[in-house]
Amino acid sequence: MFRGFPRNSSSQPRVAIIGAGIIGLSLAFELAYRRGTRVTLFDTRPAGRGASWAAAGMIAPAFEAAAEEGVHPRLFDLCLESARLWPAFSEDIERLSGLSSGFEAAPALAVALDAGEAAHLAAISQVLSARGVAHRQLTGDDLAQMEPALSRDVLGGLELETDTRVDNRRTVRALLAALEASPRVTFVKGAASLTSRNGRVHLDGHDAIVAAAGWETPVIKVAERGQLYSLVNWETALDDIDCHAGQMLSVAAGEGAPERVVRAGHVYLVPRDGQVVIGATMEPDRVIDTPEAEVIEALRLEGVKLCPDLAGAPVTERWAGVRPGTPDHAPFIGETVTPGLYVAAGHYRNGILLAPVTAQIIADQILGQAVGELAATFTPRRAYSATA
Ligand SMILES: Cc1cc2nc3c(=O)[nH]c(=O)nc-3n(C[C@H](O)[C@H](O)[C@H](O)COP(=O)(O)OP(=O)(O)OC[C@H]3O[C@@H](n4cnc5c(N)ncnc54)[C@H](O)[C@@H]3O)c2cc1C
Question: Which pLDDT band holds residue 383 (cuts at 50, 70, 90)?
Answer without folding.
Answer: confident
